[in-house]
Design brief:
The protein is α+β, with helices and mostly antiparallel strands and 89 residues long. The chain has a four-stranded antiparallel β-sheet, covered by helices on one side. Strand 2 and strand 3 form a beta hairpin. The protein is globular, with a radius of gyration of 12 Å.
C-alpha cells in the first residue's frame, strides 16, 4: 500500500472535468484507489463519489492505493494534480 497527500491548486477545485480525468486515470490501473478528504474515504474510481466531496482550491487530500501498480498509479495522479489537471483558464 502507498499513500500521497497533495494540495489542490486548481482555482476551481475538482469540478466535473478534473473529476472525470482523475477517475479515468485511477481506473486505468489495477490497484484499489481511495481518496481521503476530511472524515470521508471514497473510491477514487467513482465519478459520483469524487464529485460528492466538493473539493475546493486549497484543500488537502490523500490518495491511498493498494495493488501491484499502486506506486505508478499515485505518480500519475500526482502529476495530474501538479499540472492542475492540464486545464486552461
Amino acid at each position: 500500500m502507498a499513500d500521497i497527500t497533495v494540495v489542490i491548486n486548481n482555482k476551481y477545485g475538482i469540478h466535473a472535468r478534473p473529476a472525470a480525468t482523475l477517475v479515468k486515470t485511477a481506473a486505468s490501473y489495477k490497484s484499489t484507489v481511495k481518496l481521503i478528504f476530511g472524515e470521508k474515504t471514497i473510491d477514487a474510481k467513482s465519478i459520483l463519489a469524487v464529485m460528492s466531496l466538493g473539493i475546493k482550491q486549497g484543500a488537502q487530500i490523500t490518495f491511498s492505493a493498494d495493488g501491484e501498480d499502486s506506486k505508478d498509479c499515485l505518480q500519475a495522479i500526482k502529476k495530474l494534480i501538479d499540472t492542475d489537471f492540464a486545464e486552461c483558464y
